[in-house]
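Sample intake sheet
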Amino acid sequence: MTDGMGRTIDYIRISVTDRCNLRCRYCMPEEGVERIPHERILRFGEIRRIVAVLAGMGLKKVKITGGEPLVRRGVTDLIAGIRAIPGIENITLTTNGVLLEEMYDGLAGAGLDAVTVSLDTLDPARFREITRRDEAQRVIRGIRQAVLKNRIPLKINCVPMGDPEEQGILELVELARSQPIHVRFIEMMPIGPGTGFPFVSEEAVKGFLEARVGTLTPCSDVMGNGPCQYYAAEGFCGRIGFISAVSHKFCSECNRVRLTAEGFLKTCLQYDTGVELKPLLASGCSDEEVAAAIEKALRSKPSGHDFGGCGQTAGAERRGMSQIGG
């Protein structure tokens, strides 16, 4: 499956819900969140059908996201269903970790290949400030259980949003010293509430860390679905990674599309380009017609984003990350 620029598209990020049990400041407002009505959300059978069509076109890798995917009832059944689709080689999930402790065994049993916990600090007070919820201890318990049981590889995603010292970035990295956890830093996406935060570049975080843990050496021993660049630090069991869409643009190697909870197949994070698949499914169209609509959308996939550019961008996405899917 290729797009109009000749890039191979073999990876999809699927948002199964726009709902979340946290209210992170760079993602969602505290109050007044307009929820998508239940009848507009893709049913699991519709998601499986879309994935099956895409797998027939060359899709191999699936990421389950939200909102917070673990708040959607039956998500483990969805994972097991996708696991059974021929051609799908890898299924991962990104969660805020609040429900990880109680759902970990079910996720492993469903055939999940890896789990990523979004966690920006270990300090309970700062966690509460960032997320507007007092759930730090539940997240930490979930991480501890994941490490103890070790049934699914674990990664942690952190979004730097100010002074690395104050945020406690070093404490997060220390999790990788003696445990098989890969800690990754994602540059703030200038979308929705994220536009109101200071930009912290990969170089700033890397410089902060190297001054404290030593030289970070590029490595290629971590398998991943996306553009993360991993580094080894002496004495560390896990790896340190950077996903830097703004300062290190990787659009020429983009291999992904996104499916929103409402069924919009989104071909670029920044732009509102793509195709509405839910109405097609509801119309009774064939799998071949769905595939044709997807192929048409891929031919128009933008060559790249313009995050960090000046002024308004025509066709720019107006939805927030919780509505798009991370």
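Comment: The chain has one domain: 11-324. Residues 44-57 form the longest helix (14 residues).
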